[in-house]
Amino acid sequence: ETSTAARRSAELEEQIALRPNDFRVLTGDRPTGLLHLGHYFGTLHNRVRLQRQGVEMMVIIADYQVLTDRDLAEHLGEHVDDLVLDYLAAGIDPQTATIFTHSAVAALNQLLLPFLSLVSVSELSRNPTVKDEINHSRQAAVSGLMFTYPAHQAADILFCKANLVPVGQDQLPHLELTRTIARRFNDRYGRLLPEPDALLSPAPLLLGTDGTKMSKSRGNAITLSATADETARLIRGAKTDAQRHITYDPQSRPEVSSLVLLAALCLGRDPHDVAADIGPGGAAALKRTVTEAVNEHLAPMRERRTAFAQDRGYLRRILREGNERANAIAEATLAEVRSAMGTRY
Ligand code: ATP
Ligand code: MG
Q: Name one GO molecular function term (predicted).
C-alpha cells in the first residue's frame, strides 16, 4: 500500500509543479503537545514547500480529536498556541494559509452525520491505524470518538473540497476512507465532492529513539523546539543495532536507517551517501552526524519560534481570522450537501 502511495505521490508532485492552482491542501495536527521531527519530515516540511509553490493551504487544529485516546483534553489553549508557533516557525504563512480549530467550525459536525451513514461498522473496525492507536492508548475502553474519528477526518478534508492531503503513512487508511465517503456521496446524491489524494514525504514513517513510530504519546520523540543539548542527549540514547558498519537499509536495519535518513533530510543529501561517509565510524559517529545536522537545520526555526512566542495577540488574531474563513467555506459546502440530500426545506 505504501509503495503504491509513494508512486502516486511522485505523479502528483509532477502535476503540482505544472499546475499548483489545481490543488487545495488540507492537513492538520492534534493539539496534544509540541511537534516533533516525525511531524516535520512526515508532513509539515511538505506543507511549507507546497505553500511556497503556490498551492492553497488549509490547516486544521483537531482539538476534538485530542479526546480519542485520553479522557481529558488538558492544557488545550497552551497546546493550540504551541501548534501555531511550530507552524509559523516552520514557515507556514498565515497571510495565505487558513489555520483554524475544529471546535470553532460547527458545520464540520453537521457533515459528519451523513458521512457516517455512508460507511459500515466493519469498515470502521478494520482500520489498522485505529487498531494500533487503541493498543497504545491509556484508556480502558474504546470510545465512540476513537472508533469514528476517521469519518470526522473525512468531514475535515471534504468541507473545503481539498484534493491533496500531505500526511505520514499512518494516515493512509483514513485517506482511503475519505475517498470512499466522497465516492459514495457522489454516487448517491450527485457529484459534489472530490476524492482527495494523500501526498507522502520521503519520510512517511520516522522512527523515534526506541525504534517505533516517533510519537508524542510514546515518549520517544525529539521536538522541534527542544534545545540543542536536549536534542544531543535524546539522539545519544537512540536505539541502534549490533552491526558496527553503518549502512542505509530500511528493510533490515530500520533504527539505523531512520537515523541516517534524518541526517540526510536535514543535510539535503542522499541517505546512501550519508551512510557511506559514516561507514566504519559506527553508531557513535552516526549519532554525532545526526545531532549536528538536526541542530543546524532547526536552529533558525527555533530562533523564529522564540520571537513569535513574544506576541500572543498575533496568535489569537491568526486563529480568529482562520476560523472566520473556515466557517464561511464550511457553511457554503454544508448548504450544497443539504441541497444535494434534499434536506433544505
Ligand atoms: P503522534 O502521532 O506523534 O502521537 P498525534 O497523533 O497527536 O501525535 P497527529 O496529529 O496524528 O499527531 O499527526 C499529525 C501528522 O503528522 C499526520 O499527518 C501524521 O501522519 C504525521 N506524523 C506523525 N508522526 C509521524 C512520524 N513518526 N513519521 C511521519 N509522519 C508522522
Ligand atoms: Mg497520530
A: tryptophan-tRNA ligase activity
Q: Hey, what's the torsion of the CAs at 48, 50, 53, 58, to 10 degrees?
A: -90
Which run of H or of E encompasses 47?
helix 45-52
Determine the Cα–Cα distance for residues 302 and 155; give it in Å rounded to an integer: 33
Q: Is the pLDDT of residue 1 over 70?
A: no
Q: Are 40 and 89 in contact (CB under 8 A)?
A: no
Q: Which domains does the chain have, with CATH numbers?
A: 2-205+312-341 (3.40.50.620), 226-308 (1.10.240.10)
Tell me the one-letter amino acid at 182.
A
The pLDDT tens digits of the residues spanning 59-68 come to 999 999 999 9
Pocket of ligand 1 (CB under 6 A): 29-30, 32, 38-39, 42-43, 167-168, 170-171, 203-206, 213-217
Q: Which three cell numbers stand for residue 89?
A: 516557525
The SS3 assignment for 213 reads strand
Q: Are 210 and 220 in contact (CB under 8 A)?
A: yes
Residue to probe by mutation, ligand 1, list 29, 136, 172, most atoms within 8 Å of CB: 29
Sheet with 164-166: strands ordered across = 98-101, 56-61, 24-29, 164-166, 197-199
Instruction: Express each pLDDT in 8-26 by its tens digit.
Output: 999 999 999 999 999 999 9
How many Cβ atoms are within 10 Å of 80's Cβ, its own excluded?
19
Nearest CA to ligand 1 atom 7: 30
